[in-house]
Amino acid sequence: MYGWFEENGLLLGLALLDGLAYAALVFMVAVGLNLVFGVLRVLNVAHGSLYAIGAYAAASLGLFAASSGLPAWASLPVLLVAAALVGGILGPLIERLLLRRIYAQEPVLQLLVTFALFMILEDAQKLIWGTQPVQNDAAMRLLGNFDVPFGADFIPFTAYQLFVLPGVAVATLVGLAWFLRRTLTGRVIVAVTTDREAATAMGIDASRIYLLTFTFGAILAALGGALSSPTASLVPGLGAQTIVLSFAVVATAGLGQIEGAALTALMIGLSRSIAVYFLPEAEVLTPYLIMVAVLLVRPQGLFGVAETRRV
Amino acid sequence: MTTSASMSRRSVLAGAATSGSLLMAGSGAEAQPAKPAELKIGITTFLSGPASVFGVPAKQTAEMLAEQINAAGGIGGVPVRLSFVDENPGTEHLVGEFRRLVQSEGVHVVFASISSGSCLACTPLSDEMRKTTILWDCGTQRIFEEGRHPFAFRTQGYGTSEVLAPLLYLLKHKPDFRSIAVINQDYAWGRDSWELWRAGMDAMKPGVRVVAELFPRFNSTDFSTEITRLLALRPDVILSTSWGGELVTLVRQANERRLLERSLMVLPVAEASLPPLGRSMPAGHIIGTRGDHWVNHPRPRDKAALDRFVNGYQQRFNQPAIYPCHHMFQAFSALQAAYTKAIAAKSGGWPNDQELAAAFQGLTFDTPTSRITIREDGQGMEDQIVGLSSFGTLPYAVPEKMMLYPATNVSAPVGQKSVDWLKTLRAGLENTAGEAI
Amino acid sequence: MRRTETLLAIGGAALLVLLAILAPWLRFVLTIALAKGVAVLGILLLLRAGQVSFGHALYLSFGAYTVAFLAPAMPEALILMPVAMLLSGLLGLVIGLFVSRYRDIFFSMLNLAISMVFYSLLEKLYHYTKGTDGIRVGVPRFLGMALERDQFEWAMFGTALVLALAIGCFVRLYLASPMGQALSAIKTRETRLEFMGLPARAVLLSAYVLSALMGGLAGSIIAMTTRHVTPLLGYWTVSGELVFIAILGGAGAALGPFLGAVTFELVRVYAAASFADAWQAILGLVLLGVILFFSRGLWGMVESLWRRRA
After folding, report:
1. Which chain C residues are Cβ-neighbours of B103 within 8 angstroms?
2. CATH code of the region B31-157+302-374
């Protein structure tokens, strides 16, 4: 007579591996959104579009690199280059031309500006990349498979999924934490996140910080998309699905909290893949249920700090 | 005096209302119409969102065909003009647009919808507005099995035949399979097609173990968890009726992780995803095309016409003509045949809506590969060809060892519900229903 | 301005009737617009308190599916509407008890999450909801009369217009009442409200329940007008649309939502008709233009035009 764990322990182990890779992607998108929200207090609906454009650009650039004779290993750095290009160009453009004009306005207007931008970018993607699936899986094929033992059997995982995705996510987390705690610019960003009024009163150049943070967030969104592109084929409508999920992560994590985003992404990733094994019907609901459960217990989010009430 | 004035104003308004709406809504339903300057066709299709993978090629096909038809003098001497409507914003927008097409644009015929949900919403409107509506791509069996729609006609096959044909092929190709897993998109077609498959499979080969029923979220971009589970379960057969970008993603991820070495895949809607898959689609798996319009059809009815259409499309849009293009071709072909028939029946006169719809009853029209007859319930009888993926001269997979299943053998008879009919099938049908071509 | 608003409302209603007579197909679009306007009035109440619900499509779709499920059992439009409205209000009360504790982003996101749960259930519970295929709604009776399609469409249009006027009036009165004033206080200085002995949560909760009632009513009108409901009505982009309409119309007055809704639907229809490939981008540009140049929305434009003349 086997216990539940003996029977399902191995499966649980597999679910863990899948969950990690998924969590890595969720983290990459959500952390940028969270950073931007923490500093600018603008919930950027177009963040999902930046993710999608990053994915498309990475695929196109990868195909171009391959056709112009770059070696196969180049397919990995190409992902980073594409993300930097998309975020580095679109980020400042959006911040300077649009967001800058509405910082003084009500939050709902800021939200809607990005919603409008989302609608425009959705059609723009279609114009550029068409409607047929775009794909370039060179980066995934480059690294081949890694066989994970499973009882007497083995399960092939792609090394890309097993190592690259979680690796980049952990590197991003560590790098961001270092940047925010140890560099001057990073500390200023943290200062603006925790108390905007006090920070600006102390003479911090908010305009520069806003531009920097937004660009940074845009690069992270594009990087999330770029990282997802080797395993997925890209079709219109990618952005709309990504953004709702990231919203859930941001609210669950607490505003501007990168560790919170990491933990939430992990919870969402793991519970999703466990659901696929043991309760497939609940899979889509897991992120939202986690969010509602967390906010019931901690109304300011996992890592959020309760704001002092103004009198 | 005042009373009568206000009375008369009200009656004028009321009169304007009724006559206006009659003029618009029922134009030609009873009257004898003169030959119009243009034959207006309203087409609803996906122009945005993930299903635009099908919708945009179909739109391109429609534009190409309209040009060709007009260059050849139009239909019955009348040039055609197309208006397109995007299905993606949802039903509430679509039914409004359907009304606009009929009441404001004054279209003579509507080609409705890729999505089954859209078709289910549009057909009742076709009844009410008495406007001939060609269901040019949607596959749900519910349409004609749950009600009569005298103005709606489907110019292609439907879910039942598109699922049964691959099932019969599997039963013949790998009769000893004992376990199966399904991974379908979580929406109506994904669920419906599995219900149809299950009914037929349980009737013809009882005792097959269903080891997993996976319905990942519609529009998923990552199936790695599902693939891991399928790798661990090692089912003999994996069925997936997914399509578009999702199918491309699923097959690529599954192939990379060698799932397709462990299990035989059955992909009834594979064809449109094969060009983007290229060599990522391994050989030896069962593939279907929602019809018989494979580019390498070994004995099409009119080889020259098939080549002309397929090559013409490829040259103009630099893409292969995938199955929605063929379905759009079929809709135009049916329309031309129906007008020819209706005009002949009226000895040269232009048909009204009623007469046009009547012409569709029992209509037979040509496609490049075959001939389709529209049954008395409005369902088109399109043959199905299923085969094994293989590589020839093209850079993407095409079927080999093809079996052709005549539509009448794989469609539920008029008046019977598909699931009930599938439950009556018995083993041995796989040997009689189709022929090798 | 008060009298002007009433005059404008009557004038607007007359214009809509005229449009509906002249172009029968517009009658359908305008009915939907009026229904959405009613739902947006609910959004307006919450906006008064500075709270943005990014999940009110929940009530829209809940009302619509209530009609879809109940219509076969009681095919009477004038019963279905209040039933859908009340059930939706009840749901709003249950959810409101939870979400009224939260403010700002958390309020928005919780509403979004709950609406997405409901949306997923509509898709998942395939055997009851028919999933994405949706449920067909037959033509219900109206006041016990079995109407022809054309007459029924007129009946729905008329009902929507009357309800829009009535609820618009109600919202005006509500906003002018102490309860409405208290709502604005939540936006500016919530704590002061509580010092005055008014529980902020109860104030927000009552506005929330009202908005759920309006959303459910709007959903029932939409269901009976389109006569086919699908889960898409509950997707987050529809919630976004409702907020979009609120801002487009202008959050300053009860007429704003209707101005916004009619404009929104007409722009969408005409954009879709002339640029089927890029209607979304056009809507986006319109929204962007309104926010950047007339942040008080169309109603704000009307107001300033009026002031200039006066």
Report:
1. 23-25
2. 3.40.50.2300
